[in-house]
UniProtKB/TrEMBL annotation:
It comes from Coccomyxa subellipsoidea (strain C-169). Residues 1-36, 72-128 form the AP2/ERF domain. Keywords: DNA-binding, Nucleus, Transcription, Transcription regulation. InterPro entries: AP2/ERF_dom, AP2/ERF_dom_sf, DNA-bd_dom_sf. The keyword Transcription applies. This is AP2-domain-containing protein. PANTHER family: AP2-LIKE ETHYLENE-RESPONSIVE TRANSCRIPTION FACTOR, AP2-LIKE ETHYLENE-RESPONSIVE TRANSCRIPTION FACTOR AIL1. It is found in: Nucleus. Gene3D superfamilies: AP2/ERF domain. One of its GO terms (molecular function) is DNA-binding transcription factor activity.
Length: 159
């Protein structure tokens, strides 16, 4: 079977819970979990409606290893002007500036759209990757594209 990175956790218990949720999504009630299945009763009904790639991204976002700046969103920090700055990291530890935005949420969406254009459906986005269908289609047609990411990051959020 496939393996998926679920994040970095501070305790074994947190890591075990992340594993259990993913296992329940993959194998249902037959999953071998670290804790009794009753611990996850509230989640079981919702797991069927969440695509696996979105569940993995949601689990990663809960991990302490998920990088955040002064914002609660990945790729977003508050600029000294009070506006929200967006930067995206590239391989080789380069960071590309994607602009300043008046809203923290708007900035997070700019980051997400650029990241989806670079990495496709495996992007560790702030919001569900299914929100970015146009970017996913562009990625599937063209592959990773930094210039497209930069272009889209400057477009209004509804593009």
């Amino acid at each position: 079977g496939k393996q998926a990175y679920l994040g970095g956790y501070s305790t074994e218990e947190e890591a075990a819970e992340a594993h259990d949720v993913a296992a329940l999504k993959c194998h249902g009630l037959k999953a071998k979990t670290n804790f009794h299945i009753s611990r996850y009763t509230a989640l079981l009904d919702r797991l069927d409606s969440v695509p696996m790639n979105e569940l993995v991204m949601a689990i990663r976002r809960t991990s302490p290893g998920f990088t955040r700046g002064s914002s609660s969103f990945r790729g977003v920090t508050q600029h000294k002007s009070g506006r929200w700055e967006v930067r995206i990291g590239l391989r080789g530890s380069k960071h590309v500036y994607l602009g300043l935005h008046s809203s923290e949420v708007e900035a997070a969406r700019v980051y997400d759209r650029a990241l989806v254009l670079l990495t496709g459906s495996s992007a560790a986005t702030n919001f569900p990757v299914s929100n970015y269908t146009k970017e996913l289609e562009a990625y599937q047609m063209c592959g990773p594209c930094l210039s497209c990411s930069l272009k889209y990051s400057l477009c209004p959020p509804n593009l």
